[in-house]
Design brief:
Chain lengths: ~325, ~325, ~300
């Protein structure tokens, strides 16, 4: 499969009152054509900031993309002038967010909001755009599309709005859909509907999906390839089956063990001790070391690099750097 | 069996829908519509449902944070909703609430130690010199350190704040803790810590929990009996094993099959429900679930199913069972 | 679980030393705002100058010396003298005492009335709320300047003794200012009541007095401090306006406002600018400094600014 997007050494920093925070720290990964890549991690691990950096939504003075390359279909997104970037955004790369309500304009009718990108990017006239909008609403599984097109966001439920967001996102046949926690705010029965729909669109349209989530269940259902992030770093990545069946990094292992699974009750849940480290107090070490059960002396003083292991999985952990452990 | 700790009989809570300048009442949202449940001392009852099912309102009406519309709530034989405000205030330490959002449930200007200890002092349950000792004990039981006592809530992470909320309830030695989605706002690794804390505390102190959650896996882990709510009504109540291994109501089945399982490429039978949850202001006739039920037949539209025992204490409200 | 808490402790030990205090944190944030610190500096200088300065002056404010009429600034009289030969610098400092005292006192009084009534209205609601807020509304619908003018004119009509007028002016300004404060405190109380930590206080079975004094009021105080600070500036301005029109504090008691009155005279305005420029600049600098400082305080204390 061809690479659609290649991210190399992406670093994004934010400036807070207490100091500079490296929210994304030298992150590299690829998204292949027609593939679903999931970035999984806990809050503050930098998964959403990665998505925002790709979309060019990190803005000064709050923060900036400090380094790296984002190559999308042969073009460098970071070095691009704002007008070209705007043409790509929403057209070739679309994005949906966790809160559909806050990403739709409350005083504009649903139909108009779907028509807007169609008229801007695909240069359709008003009539064509309206027809296409109705078609899209039907496609995302909403009955009475005419009526819905003429309603305002507050008249629809969260699940419906997320469908509308997806309709807007797929309207220009993007090559890449970035979905940032698209089902976190929704109920499980609605989540199941939305995930099913995303899978269908991916299968029929050949688009790639970059799905950002904290829910390992969603990852298992959706992903082809999984990237695990912790404190702004990629700690492990690999194919979904390998990663779930044979996790390498202690953090991934802990995460998988600590999630209660329906139908598999345990007397006591495994839990990773401690908290995510304060991003302002990071020192050159493995950022997971003080929560890790297999912590070695070297983990406290030097940062492990992401390294390919047998089976194609990659992990950033000193446990797998045999030569260096005894230094 | 001994006397039930909490007995809720046919509890109803309707919120009026008002309209226009004069606030005319044009309808009612039946947030809680005829709910009954009992809780034995030391037991954990799980209340499951999606948003709009009224599960949180049940918790709040039991604690009389909001007045009931009809029905009865008996805590240790006393009808909560007929107590005077002074009597109720004095009874409150025995039944505590844990909030979903650990950020907003703590006063940002009160030090953690004061927040935990103030109710003891206010109720005269201990003297001024004893309070610090008890606060430290409670902090320790909840996995927090002694030096946290003089800090402010904003200096803590979400998981730690939830521990503070639990410590604040725990210090009063309550017999009942109502936990309203206490782990939904937390990360997976922190969720597991808090869930373990809940079970550890129950083992050592023996209080009863009414655990309200939308997350079936969490409820399965903690609760011995579980009730499933849909649009203000209970659709199924059963013991944990019964509910998870032989669910009877189609809604319970659909919920169970919709929870994503962290096992990739798992083939399983799935009931995907059509459409959205209807508005509780305008619930469907008959069985409220018939609009989304894949097995609905004519009788479901016309008649409200009776909530009845399907054998061995497994209650269900469905025409097809 | 034990390992768990131990780990938590380990991680936190690094930040353990910093003793936490909301006041100190706010102060730290305030110190970062250079403009606000400068504003505070100017205000402090003004106070020091006005309250301590006159002791070092060889002149007294009311000593009339006809031989020194309308002298331009010189080495003996750094800011010159007025029509009665009084030293302008000394008078500006003396006037500052009055103006700043009036500003401060009327602020304290209006904050006291406003906070008390606002808290009662917001906490108890019902009838008390209705009565208090309708009175506040009534006072707010009348434009305050004309109202002050009418009060001032009445004072002159009733021939109130000049040395009492200062206190009456304070009272007048407080009456005009409290409704805004009361309204704000009430709004804050109403929104705080709905916060989840207040529900938690109900569940814990806390007494009303504890809920009010330990939970609600401490959350209103920061906003109150900000409003009070900004209020001083407004009060100083209003007092100056009144005195300028001869309706506030009367000469010979000097205030910045009645000193600028000199600018009313065409000849003085053109030929003796040292008569009105110093008090004018004093008002300008003080009010600007107070407002800048107040804005800085708002940035630090307003909860909306926090994450």
């Amino acid at each position: 499969m061809k690479h659609l997007m290649n991210i190399e050494g992406l670093s994004t920093v934010f400036y807070t009152e207490e100091g500079k925070v490296a929210a994304v720290d030298h992150v590299s990964f690829q998204v292949r054509e027609g593939e679903t890549v999931c970035i999984v991690g806990e809050s503050g691990c930098g998964k959403s900031v990665t998505a925002m950096s790709i979309m060019g939504l990190v803005e000064a003075p709050g923060g900036k993309v400090a380094g790296g390359k984002i190559d999308f279909a042969g073009e460098d997104l970071l070095g691009m002038d704002p007008n070209t970037l705007r043409a790509i955004r929403g057209n070739e790369i679309a994005m949906i967010f966790q809160e559909p309500m806050s990403s739709l304009n409350p005083v504009m009718k649903i139909g108009e909001q779907i028509m807007e990108p169609l008229m801007v990017h695909l240069k359709l006239n008003k009539k064509q755009a309206r027809l296409r909008a109705i078609e899209l609403i039907t496609q995302v599984g909403i009955a009475r599309p005419d009526q819905i097109a003429d309603s305002y966001p507050h008249e629809l439920s969260g699940g419906m709005l997320q469908r509308i967001m997806i309709a807007i996102a797929i309207s220009c046949n993007p090559k890449l859909l970035i979905a940032d926690e698209p089902t976190t705010a929704l109920d499980v029965t609605i989540q199941a509907q939305i995930l099913d729909m995303l899978r269908e669109f991916k299968a029929s349209g050949g688009m790639s999906i970059l799905l950002i989530t904290h829910d390992l269940g969603v990852v298992a259902e959706m992903a082809d390839y999984v990237i695990v992030m912790y404190s702004g770093k990629v700690v492990e990545e690999g194919g979904v089956v390998e990663l779930f069946n044979n996790p390498k990094h202690p953090y991934t292992k802990g995460l998988l063990k600590s999630k209660p699974v329906v139908g598999q009750r345990l007397e006591e849940l495994y839990s990773i001790p401690g908290q995510v480290p304060n991003p302002l107090e990071l020192e050159p070490s493995c950022y997971f070391h003080d929560r890790c059960e297999q912590c070695l002396p070297v983990c406290r003083s030097r940062q492990p690099q992401l390294k390919e292991l047998d089976g194609g999985q990659k992990a950033a952990c000193w446990l797998y750097e045999e030569a260096e452990v005894h230094v | 069996m001994s006397e039930a700790l909490l007995e809720v009989n046919h509890l109803k809570k309707y919120f009026p829908v008002t309209e226009g300048l004069l606030n005319r009442t044009v309808g009612q949202v039946k947030a809680v519509d005829d709910i009954s449940l009992t809780l034995q001392p030391g037991e954990t009852f799980g209340l499951v449902g999606e948003s709009g099912s009224g599960k949180s309102t049940v918790g709040r009406t039991i604690l009389r944070l909001t007045e009931k519309t009809a029905g009865e709530v008996k805590f240790k034989g006393q009808d909560i909703h007929s107590l005077s405000s002074v009597e109720l205030r004095l009874l409150r330490p025995q039944m505590q609430l844990i909030f979903q959002d650990p950020y907003s449930a703590l006063n940002p200007r009160v030090r953690v130690g004061d927040a935990i200890g103030e109710a003891l002092l206010d109720h005269g349950l201990c003297s001024r010199h004893e309070v610090r000792e008890l606060v430290l004990e409670s902090l320790d039981a909840c996995g927090l350190s002694a030096y946290h006592i003089d800090r402010f809530p904003h200096e803590f992470s979400g998981g730690q704040r939830q521990r503070i909320g639990i410590a604040r309830a725990l210090i009063l030695n309550p017999d009942l803790i109502i936990a309203d989605e206490p782990v939904s706002a937390l990360d997976v690794s922190i969720q597991a810590q808090i869930i373990n804390l809940f079970s550890k505390l129950q083992r050592s102190k023996g209080m009863a929990y009414l655990f309200i959650s939308h997350d079936l896996s969490v409820v399965e882990h903690l609760c011995s009996r579980i009730g499933v709510m849909y649009l203000g009504s209970m659709v199924e109540t059963a013991s944990r094993d019964e509910l998870f291994h032989s669910p009877l109501h189609p809604y319970t089945k659909a919920l169970l099959s919709a929870v994503p399982v962290p096992i990739p490429r798992l083939k399983r039978e799935r009931i995907v429900l059509k459409g959205d949850i209807p508005s509780p202001a305008n619930p469907p006739s008959g069985c409220k679930f018939h609009t989304r039920c894949p097995f609905a037949v004519e009788v479901c539209k016309a008649q409200t199913p009776v909530f009845r025992d399907a054998g061995g204490g497994h209650f269900v409200a469905c025409h097809l069972v | 679980m034990e390992a768990n808490s131990r780990m938590t402790g380990l991680h936190e030990s690094r930040v353990q030393r910093q003793k936490s205090s909301l006041f100190r944190q706010s102060l730290k944030r305030l110190m970062k705002n250079k403009l606000a610190v400068a504003g505070f500096g100017v205000v402090v200088c003004m106070f020091v100058l006005c309250f301590i300065g006159p002791f070092f002056s060889p002149y007294t404010d009311n000593k009339i010396n006809m031989t020194l009429m309308n002298k331009a600034p010189n080495l003996q009289h750094l800011l010159g003298t007025d029509a009665l030969g009084r030293d302008i610098l000394t008078r500006v400092m003396q006037a500052g005492r009055i103006s700043l005292t009036v500003g401060l006192a009327s602020m304290l009084l209006s904050v006291f009335i406003g906070a008390l009534l606002g808290a009662i209205a917001g906490y108890y609601r019902g009838i008390a709320d209705q009565v208090i807020m309708r009175i506040a509304d009534l006072l707010m619908t009348i434009p305050s300047l004309p109202l002050l003018f009418i009060f001032g004119a009445l004072l002159s009509e009733w021939k109130v003794r000049a040395d009492y007028r200062m206190y009456i002016v304070m009272l007048m300004l407080s009456i005009v200012n409290w409704p805004g404060l009361a309204r704000m405190v009430r709004g804050q109380m109403l929104s705080l009541r709905e916060r989840e930590f207040m529900q938690a206080a109900v569940v814990l079975g806390l007494r009303d007095s504890r809920k009010l004094f330990h939970h609600l009021l401490p959350n209103v105080v920061p906003l109150l401090i900000v409003m009070a600070t900004l209020n001083i500036g407004g009060a100083i301005l209003s007092e100056s306006v009144l005195s300028f029109f001869g309706l506030g504090v009367m000469p010979p008691t000097p205030t910045w406002g009645n000193m600028i009155d000199a600018a009313n005279n065409m000849i003085d305005f053109q030929d003796h600018p040292w008569l009105w420029i110093p008090p004018g600049l004093s008002i300008f600098a003080t009010v600007i400094a107070i407002n800048i400082f107040g804005d800085g305080l708002r940035d630090v204390l307003d909860p909306k600014q926090k994450r």
